[in-house]
């Protein structure tokens, strides 16, 4: 439910109504703009009588929200959210978030060299997998805590904030302490115990869309995190599973404008996992920026042929640098910058 107040309503009247609504068991999220004042009600609003609310002389009208997600809903938060990560902004009109690095951290030399290369190319975040969820239990599972240490060393050398994937709730403490953006992978998008725990932190969360998740299910997963109090959520479209087998997944670029209409949360695109083919990263990365993505997360490896994980979808640093140079005019055409 959304309560639209009359323009110019005094703050004390807003507070008085908010307290009355809170007493009825809902959470009130006020949005106070220059020309519009909204009270977004989160919780069970079935017991709140519209007529009782509209009897307040400062209320313009009451609207009901059909979508089950509330905190992630643009109706409750008309302006785009901007997530601050170590001084870097993601969302709104800020610089595009360019996240790059290898699928897996393999060695100190590897991750630090790639970090230097992608920073020089124009990236403003470093990605790297320390814990790797793999389909096969026999595949490389990552360097785990040693990998985290190497990511921290790469950050020390380059100043790039690090983005890496968490697998289990028991690792939240070390991730909250050492990682700049905690990534929730596609397989964990509906790991609700993990999402609830992440809601208790204030770290930015990069939430990837599940393998077969609808847009509503994706936003409801964001709602789990936000309902716990952590509203620093960045969404990531990384392709969904369809009947098509030529590519690893099917990149749903239509999700970008859909998210921008439904939600205030920033949304980025992962063309590497979406296709599983390195030569498709270039055109789909450009298309993602053209349709309004707030950034890209791309796998970059200095020796893809010998990568321990996902070399077939990784591009080399020089290819990444060329891609960013070609994205700049596309970004400018849609009012964004690198």
Poorly predicted residue ranges: none
**What gyration radius follows from the Cα positions, in whole Å?**
21 Å
CATH topology of the largest domain: TIM Barrel
- Termini separation (Å)? 38 Å
Helix content: 25-40%
Largest sheet: 8 strands, parallel
Oligomeric description of these chains: single chain
N to C succession of SSEs: EHEEHEEEEHEHEHEHEHEHEHHEH
Count of helical regions: 11
Give the mean pLDDT. 94
Q: In order across it, which strands form the biggest sheet?
A: 13-12-11-10-9-8-7-14
Domain tally: 2
Strand-residue fraction? 15-25%
Structural class: alpha/beta
Name given to the CATH architecture of the largest domain: Alpha-Beta Barrel
Query: In CATH, what is the class of the largest domain?
Result: Alpha Beta
Spell out the CATH superfamily of the largest domain: Aldolase class I
What would you call the shape? elongated
What is the tally of beta strands? 14
Walk me through this protein's architecture.
The chain is of the alpha/beta class and 338 residues long. The protein has two domains: 62 residues, Phospho-2-dehydro-3-deoxyheptonate aldolase, domain 1 (Alpha-Beta Plaits, 2-Layer Sandwich); 251 residues, Aldolase class I (TIM Barrel), CATH 3.20.20.70. It has eleven helices and 14 strands. An eight-stranded parallel beta sheet has the order 13-12-11-10-9-8-7-14. The radius of gyration is 21 Å and the shape is elongated. The two termini are 38 Å apart. The relative contact order is 0.12.
């Amino acid at each position: 439910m959304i309560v639209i107040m009359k323009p110019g309503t005094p703050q004390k009247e807003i507070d008085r109504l908010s307290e009355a609504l809170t007493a009825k068991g809902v959470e009130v999220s006020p949005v106070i703009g220059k020309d519009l004042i909204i009270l977004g009600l989160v919780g069970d609003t079935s017991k709140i009588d519209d007529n009782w609310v509209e009897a307040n002389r400062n209320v313009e009208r009451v609207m009901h929200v059909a979508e089950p997600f509330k905190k992630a809903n643009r109706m409750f938060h008309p302006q785009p959210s901007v997530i601050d990560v170590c001084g870097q902004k993601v969302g709104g009109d800020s610089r595009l978030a360019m996240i790059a690095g290898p699928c897996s951290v393999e060695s100190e030399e590897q991750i630090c060299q790639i970090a230097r290369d992608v920073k020089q190319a124009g990236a403003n975040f470093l990605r790297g997998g320390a814990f790797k969820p793999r389909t096969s239990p026999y595949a490389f599972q990552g360097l785990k805590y040693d990998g985290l240490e190497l990511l921290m060393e790469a950050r020390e050398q380059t100043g790039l904030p690090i983005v890496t994937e968490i697998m289990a709730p028991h690792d939240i403490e070390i991730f909250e302490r050492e990682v700049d953006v905690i990534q929730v992978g596609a397989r964990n998008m509906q790991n609700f115990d993990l999402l609830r725990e992440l809601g208790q932190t204030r770290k930015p969360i990069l939430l990837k869309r599940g393998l077969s998740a609808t847009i509503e299910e994706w936003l409801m997963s964001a709602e789990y995190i936000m309902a716990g109090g952590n509203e620093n959520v960045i969404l990531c479209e990384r392709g969904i599973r369809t009947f098509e087998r030529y590519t690893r997944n099917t990149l749903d670029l239509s999700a970008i404008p859909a998210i921008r209409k439904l939600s205030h949360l920033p949304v980025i695109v992962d063309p590497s996992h979406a296709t599983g083919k390195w030569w498709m990263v270039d055109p789909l990365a450009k298309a993602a920026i053209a349709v309004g993505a707030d950034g890209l997360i791309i796998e970059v490896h200095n020796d893809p042929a010998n990568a321990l994980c996902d070399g077939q979808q990784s591009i080399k640093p020089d290819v990444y640098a060329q891609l960013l140079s070609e994205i700049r005019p596309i970004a400018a055409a849609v009012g964004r910058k690198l």
